[in-house]
Amino acid sequence: MFASPVIAAFLALMLWWMSTGLILLAVRRADQAGGRAFHGLICWGLPFLVLGAVAVMQSVQALTVAGMYIGFAGALCIWGWIEMTFLTGLVTGPRKLPMTAQTPGERFAQAWGVVAYHETLLLIGFLGIVLATIGQPNPIAAWTYGMLLFARVLAKLNLFNGVPGINTDAVPTPLSHITSYFRTSDPSWVFPLSVTVLSLFTAFWVERLVHAATDASAVMFAFLSALTALALLEHWMMLIPLADTKLWRWMMPDRPTAVTVTNEP
Q1: Closest CA relative to residue 29, chosen from 86, 87, 83, 71
Q2: Distance CA 96, CA 83 (A)
Q3: Model's pTM, two decimal places?
């Protein structure tokens, strides 16, 4: 059953949905608790980071269906923990203030200052997984993390350059200043480029899936097809002023404070 590409794609989407919802829930709870709750959350999450690293190391030599599931889950664990360090405000960047720049160059420099440490940590995580998979038969962990990183960079560039549908439902209190770096406007040139590239990646993974020679390869390309198609859908949702966090509303408590977006002309 687990060798079915349809089942693999479905489980990939469910794992993403559940893991994202649990992270949002944990961050929201810590936001409500205040104090050093965010530090405690990162410490409690460390076993998932370790588990993810072990899973990646165990998967790289296993060119099997099980190895694909283990590598995919391991990459998500590492990615999720690093994302928590950002959402808790513990690993962001040297700049902790709202946007004050006027020129495009100054805006970009200030925006980079807000996320520099986190982007560096994401890159370190990617390089670590790549080093673990180089020369090994199973690359699923590196491809999974790499696609997540690539799609996230595109999403951040779109939020910075301008899209119509920006919501801040999931922005915790420590990151309230970051909303001033978002720009609500007609889509910039970054948007058509982003959806085109993600569409090409999705088509490539689907083509590889159709021509997969083994069950393990089919599962790997099913994972990547589902993950990339999801990233593509999330980009198209940037055109709609709809709070995508409604997908997890049933499991999230009310936020402690309201956060608003500063729109630029």
Answers
A1: 87
A2: 18
A3: 0.90
